[in-house]
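Hi,

I'm pasting everything inline rather than attaching a file, because the server keeps stripping attachments. The sequence lines come first, and each chain or strand is labelled.
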Amino acid sequence: MNGYIFPFTLAFTALSVVGALLRPASDLVNLALLASVALVSLGRIPTSWRSGLLAVLALTLTLLLRLNPGDKLAFYGLLGVLIACFLLPNLPTLVRVALGTAILFISVPIAGLTNSFLFELGIQIGIFAALALGLNVVVGQAGLLDLGFAAFFAIGAYTWGIFGSPQAAQFIEGFPAGGLPGNYLYLFMALAIITAAITGVLIGLPALRLRGDYLAIVTLGLGEVVRVLANNLDKPLNITNGPQGITPVNRPEVGFLTQFLQAIGAEQVYGKPIDSYITYAFFFYLLVLLVIGVVILVNIRLANSRFGRAWVAIREDEIAAKAMGIPLLPTKLLAFATGAAFSGIMGAIFAAKQTFVSPESFTLQASINILAFVILGGMGSIGGAVVGAAAVTVLNIGLLKDFSDLLNTWRQTGVTILGYNMANLPPQLNPAKYERLVFGLILILMMIFRPEGLIPEQRHRVEMQEARQEAKEGGSK
Amino acid sequence: MTLGDLVAILPQTVLEGLLLGFVYAMVALGYTMVYGVLGLINFAHSEVFMIGAVIGLEVFRFWGNPAAPVIANPFLLLLVALLFAAVGSGFMAVLVERFAYRPLRKRGSKNILVPMITAIGVSFLLQDLTRIYAALRHNEFNMQYRTYEALNQVFELPFQTTIQMKGVLIIAVSVLMLIGLTYLVNRTKLGKAIRAVSQDMQTAALMGINPDVIISRTFLIGGALGGVAGVLFGLLYTNITPYSGVLPGLKAFTSAVLGGIGNIPGAMVGGLILGQLETLSGTYLPFLTNGNFGTEYKDVFAFLTLVLLLLFRPQGIFGQNVSEKV
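And the predicted assembly:
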């Protein structure tokens, strides 16, 4: 069978590329392209061909997106190529970097400048990936189940939200009425790292004396405490403006980006002015990319450092780790603070991007969502956390929403399916709202069938293989 | 408000705390029993509780329509609702154990995070399945319990305290269930088996007890108690949503920890204490802080209690200190 996969994939890819050039707007062509991305990734393609095929696919999909910016399937295909070029083994590093950079900095902006939904999706994925990477340090590497992780995201968001908006003037006399100018965001991104890390230590100090399930429930409780505080600190001193939330939060100036877009003649290319909405989407897309890049680098370096090894040691066997001279509490606190810092910085960006902060965004639901990213990707695996965040975000704000729209069209047109008239479908039934169903299913199915995640951490992979080997031997006895 | 007024509302507050406390105590038993046999925080128990409330609501809705009642007597109707909720929730808990937890146990994974994350997943899944049910069946999110005059009848008690008929019923049902459970656990063969499994599963298995059966029965009993508590909770607060199990579930778990998790009388006492803490802080916090910290902080209070307790007496009030074996 394996012998056929290579020529088959090659033929399939060639056919779909030709199809894309002939009929760019057809969904079938898109599906064929998606399928060839999957085949290149899964099929046993000779390594020398992989880079070439991925490049051809990336180019075709980019062309498709340029012709039809609303083409979501092409966007998902591009995402697939991106993930493949980071995760496929035996690709030259130069190809990985070149292809990744080209997709992120050329393909996506080309389409995004006319369809800001793509930027929006990219920003969401980036923010969630940073949160997943933060939680990955705590749950994945150090093995400490934290169910209140959204609290740190909230701290970061409120750090900028309060001072970058008219809110601060409410309780600090003489503070500028409109809040600090948007360009202070860069400073506050650094401050958000610090405040979130400090909160991590403050929550960790009592919580980390406990183990396992107790730790989970206490972090859950403390996470809720942070949300309740955000919800109610509008009196006696109006600090968070309560459930109404804070708005408008200032954004940095993006004059340089507007000038840049003018300089490269974007308006002539697209035949219409690039408005400030899209410019801001582009700006935050770039900012999130930059930050997520740094976060990934720091994560990789940390995982291989003395601390990373200490975390894994604690996860595997706390008592043995202690016996080997690892100071338990400080090392765990460091994991908490590091994870919190990653989500703190994204919190500040999130506040500026939304221009709105409210306690609604930081519920238990949000914490569990982040956990689902980590579990899906594979606990402890850095690539896994990013892929998990991307996959679930696409599923959640892409596919589920599309499904909702589809149901709505059916409802309005009154299509009959299997003898049921869709017009009778209750309006409360809205798949976009059933994210808990999706996250719940992901958590259960992964735990039962693939607890090591989609992209297992190296160490886990070896352990699972050994366990299977043992089970086999045990069964034959 | 003067000090006299504050004292005057105390008996009523304590009484309301008692009602809430009994509901918590019954839910807490489900957590504590499962923790006893499996060492697992069954996050899905809060949804088993919520589903009990929904089942009770449906019984009231279908058989108790005031225009054309199938069962005209509200007391009989309540009894039927309690029975259905107990059976429904009990079997729901058994299903959850069978399909979500047992496969993990059979695989023998040592990682304690795995079953707990599964439990969270089950909890989320059940919430949205209930939501889909409510949307398809009634096209609604908030579900309202029917009210009956006979159940809302008010009795005057000494110290300017009043209690509704349903309050009396809640106390009566809870006390009966708690006595029944104590009898079951301490005096019957099944109870002995449950205690044996929770002490040492392997040794219990060597003595001819099938742990799988006992675990399943434990989920059944805990689920049934949760279902009954759900109906009582619905009677008390009348409004149920697919997500209304979460907070009471968390507080019931807090109660279980308060009493010492795995300890059955502890869970009962813990529930009663937490009920008091919550209503007292909810009533008095706004007065004590001049309205600066409102009733909303009562949840914070419950969680902070949990954190403090875990820090200073992690084994709970009735728990024994167990040192970990290496």
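The first strand of chain B starts at residue 143 and ends at 144.

If the labels don't parse on your end, tell me and I'll reformat.
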